[in-house]
């Protein structure tokens, strides 16, 4: 199999991890990194023995690239991706795909026209605990899902300069809910505000309905400890997932139904069967980038297509519209 030449565009906190992981993938060579901060690009290039650039066009002109990761701030995704696609380079764009639907549609259309792999970096789909939970749900072991509740909270991240808590955090859970339920919400409700940051929303509570299935998302940058949890209730059981520790616990319901002496219908619950699901813990980003490279090599469809990324953004923007929030430019 031929060696793929890759680059990372935007080497802040997330970009550094992309660069590190690319150096560990078989048949892949990290040939360059690009960032407007020359010192940052040079430092990473020295660490991984690749070239550093501050100009995207110059990097594309000099390097014969097969693929790139775009990990720059959201407001730059569209312009960078458009240049990359027009130069026939496969691309992974860190979530969200862009800052509006019109731009997203254009990128999807251009990538398809050029027969390129376009993947959106919704990393939680590659968490081993989520992969297993999806399998359990699809096999019907939890019965019909009635509710999903996620909590994604913590302190304010200094590296986030152009997104509010909905675009940066809630979009993860919006995508995961659609992935687990195999459908998108039909109703959206919510509330958001600015508690500690006067420049952008730093907390939100979002309620989504999927027909007769309900989902609740709590996100904020004001909680002093970092929590990333998901709880799911179904007619046959209950599951708890910890994104950070990759722990998954399933409680299988034990109940019977009957009529009491008065003729009233009752349900009797016994102790549930608790199962701590055994998982091989892996770095979700490593799984994601390996999948991206494999899709390029085999010309297969990514788990998160441009359309998937656009849909998650669309729902997040509808949440903001409901709350009368404008995306920060």
Give the CATH architecture of the largest domain.
2-Layer Sandwich
Q: Which spans of ≥5 residues are poorly predicted at pLDDT below 50?
A: none
How far do the termini sit from each other?
A: 43 Å
Rounded mean pLDDT score = 93
Derived from helix and strand composition plus strand pairing, the structural class reads alpha/beta
- Taken together, the total number of domains comes to 2
Shape: globular
Radius of gyration: 22 Å
* Sheet with the most strands: spatial strand order: 8-9-10-7-11-12-13-16
CATH topology of the largest domain: Dihydrodipicolinate Reductase, domain 2
Pattern of helices and strands: EHEHEHEHEHEHEHEEEEEEEEEHH
The count of β-strands is 16
Proportion in β-strands = 25-35%
The CATH superfamily label of the largest domain reads Dihydrodipicolinate Reductase, domain 2
Largest sheet: number of strands, sense, barrel closure: 8 strands, mixed
